[in-house]
Design goal:
7-stranded mixed sheet; 35% helix; hydrolase; riboflavin biosynthesis; 217 residues; globular
């Protein structure tokens, strides 16, 4: 049964050219919103012919490709290799631009615990805890992210039937409970390095992420 979803509306929209360090460039239609339940400044990026994808899905055709991407300052901006967030963001923008769809940039640093707490968790990981154990040791949830705002943004943009670009089953489960039809879940690529192998393994072991790691069977 779907949960009642508070209504959000589009606040403003503007076209922004994007360029990544490897030279890939595209253009996005960036949306801000009124009425998001947590009051944070989340953004939606319309990439490629996103509006046609939304219209096709509403008419019963293939759904637009959508990724809810949680903010990661260390990975997205500074290229930290302790996680796979930066490469996932780069991959998602190109794939969504090619297919036509939406990237939701959600201000949920550190799986919802915030930037400073995430750095505290890094210190605990250096002492031997995995990424989920570290959050719990700080007295926080293993994953505090709530995707109500993502569902609000999708509904405001008319994208209530989507193909979800994510390895995380919880994203799909939460969106479905909030009334978004997840027609399929599309995995991201594998962005494995020596520095993030333990992090990715913890995602598989503790949160059932669909990541095909060569050393986890």
């Amino acid at each position: 049964m779907s949960e009642a979803l508070p209504v959000a509306t589009i606040r403003t929209q503007v076209t922004v050219p994007l360029r990544f360090p490897d030279g890939y460039a595209t253009t996005a239609r960036v949306f801000s919103f009124h009425g998001l339940v947590d009051g944070r400044e989340h953004l939606a990026f319309g990439l490629g012919d996103w509006s046609a994808g939304v219209d096709r899905a509403a008419a019963g055709g293939p759904p637009p490709l959508v990724r809810p991407h949680s903010e990661c300052l260390t990975g997205d901006v500074f290229g930290s290799q302790r996680c796979d967030c930066g490469p996932q963001l780069r991959e998602a923008v190109e794939r969504i631009a090619a297919a036509g769809g939406l990237l939701l940039y959600l201000r949920q640093e550190g799986r919802g615990i915030g930037l400073y707490a995430k750095l505290d968790a890094y210190a605990l990981q250096d002492a031997g805890l995995d990424t989920y154990e570290a959050n719990l040791a700080l007295g926080r949830g293993a994953d505090e992210r709530n995707y109500t705002v993502a569902a609000q943004m999708l509904a405001a943009l008319g994208a209530e039937r989507v193909a979800l670009l994510s390895n995380n089953p919880d994203k799909a489960d939460q969106l479905r409970r909030l009334g978004i039809e997840v027609a399929e879940r599309v995995p991201t690529g594998l962005h494995l390095s020596d520095a993030n192998a333990g992090y990715l393994a913890a995602k598989v072991d503790r949160a059932a992420h669909t990541i095909d790691l060569p050393f986890v069977r």
